[in-house]
């Protein structure tokens, strides 16, 4: 405690100036800073920058490799902007892009292609991302805010809230126990004929409905937006600017949709990957959120080995396994379209996190509607694949 008190006095003394760093730059000083806990660093930064929100300080600290020196240097460039910020006491936290806090040496290369130069996830911590640029850079997803015209989004929300009264909770067997889904859902198909085909030729234990007029109207917008995001992903994130191996060569179009209803903040779904039986490998899914905002969390799937094993990375050297598995939270407001790209289902898991504190939506209240548009590939129809696995 004495060490911490003395350290804070040293850092906040009048000797701190623009030309002097608050910490010594010798080797011992660096080791001392590395050994400090995140809480101590945050407390130090909070005393030096009382107008800054603590969540923002944490984000900048993570982006600065945990260096208090680097945070102070970064914030000195934004004193005018940051001094005008006020703390907002609300359950929804707003954050500017992490890119605005990076120095020029930490940005992408000479071209326009974005590059994740640093792993930001840490063991036991959740990295919250809000801006489309950060989500695209650090996850296999991209997001479009205010996707539909406001009135069109409200009409679709009202329509699906009425439909949702008929939704059912799926039941499934885990070992010898029959468990129930923590939220209700329904599977939508394009026509009565398609509904009959799905019920007789495909395996699904939930309820079926035909697509609603508003869903049909929106599906064309979703198709155009998702294909545009796929093209951007291929150009800027995939090796050689080409689709991933086993990714469908055809243009993506939605021919089925799952609609999920979360009644309140307690209804959630744990970490999982979507079933690829009829979607095929490297599936792309467009997920439209309506109603109350919720937190969508993702984490990378890392092969298990020795407890202290580290992962090799051509960009970062070695990465602790626990850090590589760290979770990232993507906040999904009303009328946002999240695109889960081709690497998502095989390499990452996702969930909807419980939220005891949520801001009610003026129409939906505490409810969230989620429409996941999918493309069922004809080559993975049950008539072409082995589908008697249920007897095993």
Derived from helix and strand composition plus strand pairing, the structural class reads alpha+beta
| Global mean pLDDT | 76
| General form | globular
Q: What are the segments in which pLDDT stays under 50 over at least 5 consecutive residues?
A: 1-34, 80-94, 103-112, 387-392
SSE series? HHHHHHEHEHEEHEHEEEEEEHEEHEE
**Beta strand %:** 15-25%
Rounded to an integer in angstroms, the radius of gyration calculated over CA atoms is 24 Å
Number of helices: 12
Helix fraction by DSSP (H/I, runs of at least 4): 25-40%
Write the topology of this structure.
Blueprint: H1 2-11, H2 27-35, H3 38-48, H4 54-63, H5 68-76, H6 79-83, E1 126-129, H7 132-138, E2 141-144, H8 150-163, E3 168-174, E4 177-189, H9 192-201, E5 208-210, H10 213-237, E6 256-262, E7 269-272, E8 285-291, E9 294-300, E10 310-313, E11 317-320, H11 321-324, E12 327-332, E13 336-340, H12 344-347, E14 348-352, E15 368-374
Parallel strand pairs: 1-12, 4-5
Antiparallel strand pairs: 2-13, 3-4, 4-6, 6-15, 7-14, 8-13, 8-15, 9-12, 9-14, 10-11
Helix pairs in contact: 1-3, 3-4
Describe what you observe in this structure.
This protein is α+β, with helices and mostly antiparallel strands. Helices cover 30% and strands 22% of the residues. The chain contains 12 helices and 15 strands. Strands 2, 3, 4, 5, 6, 8, 13 and 15 form an 8-stranded mixed sheet that branches. A 5-stranded mixed sheet has the order 1-12-9-14-7. The protein is globular, with a radius of gyration of 24 Å. Residues 1-34, 80-94, 103-112 and 387-392 have low confidence and may be disordered.
């Amino acid at each position: 405690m004495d060490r911490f008190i003395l350290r804070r006095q040293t850092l906040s003394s009048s000797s701190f100036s623009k030309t002097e760093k608050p910490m010594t730059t010798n080797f011992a000083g660096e080791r001392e800073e590395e050994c400090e806990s995140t809480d101590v660093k945050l407390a130090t930064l909070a005393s030096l920058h009382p107008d800054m929100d603590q969540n923002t300080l944490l984000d900048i600290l993570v982006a600065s490799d945990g260096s208090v020196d680097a945070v102070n240097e970064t914030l000195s460039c934004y004193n005018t902007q940051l001094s005008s910020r006020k703390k907002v006491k609300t359950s929804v936290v707003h954050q500017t892009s992490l890119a605005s806090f990076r120095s020029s040496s930490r940005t992408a290369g000479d071209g326009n292609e974005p590059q994740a130069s640093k792993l930001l996830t840490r063991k036991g911590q959740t990295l919250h991302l809000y801006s489309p640029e950060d989500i695209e850079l650090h996850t296999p997803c991209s997001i479009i805010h205010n996707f539909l015209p406001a009135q069109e989004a409200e009409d679709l929300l009202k329509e699906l809230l009425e439909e949702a009264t008929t939704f059912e909770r799926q039941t499934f067997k885990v070992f010898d126990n029959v468990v129930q889904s923590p939220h209700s859902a329904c599977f939508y198909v394009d026509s009565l004929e398609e509904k009959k085909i799905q019920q007789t030729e495909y395996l699904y234990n939930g309820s079926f409905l035909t697509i609603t007029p508003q869903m049909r109207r929106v599906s064309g917008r979703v198709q155009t937006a998702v294909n545009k995001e796929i093209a951007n992903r291929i150009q800027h994130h995939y090796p050689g600017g080409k689709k991933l191996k086993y990714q469908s060569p055809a243009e993506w179009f939605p021919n089925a949709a799952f609609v999920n209803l979360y009644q309140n903040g307690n209804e959630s779904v744990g970490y999982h990957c979507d079933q690829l039986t009829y979607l095929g490998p490297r599936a792309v899914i467009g997920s439209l959120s309506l109603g109350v905002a919720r937190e969508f969390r993702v984490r990378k799937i890392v092969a298990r080995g020795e407890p202290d094993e580290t992962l090799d990375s051509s960009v970062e050297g070695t990465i602790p396994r626990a850090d590589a598995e760290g979770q990232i939270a993507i906040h999904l407001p009303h009328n946002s379209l999240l695109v889960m790209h081709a690497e998502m289902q095989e390499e990452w898991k996702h969930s909807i996190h419980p939220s005891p504190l949520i801001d009610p939506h003026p129409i939906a209240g505490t409810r969230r509607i989620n429409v996941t548009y999918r493309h069922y590939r004809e080559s993975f129809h049950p008539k072409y694949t082995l589908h008697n696995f249920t007897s095993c």
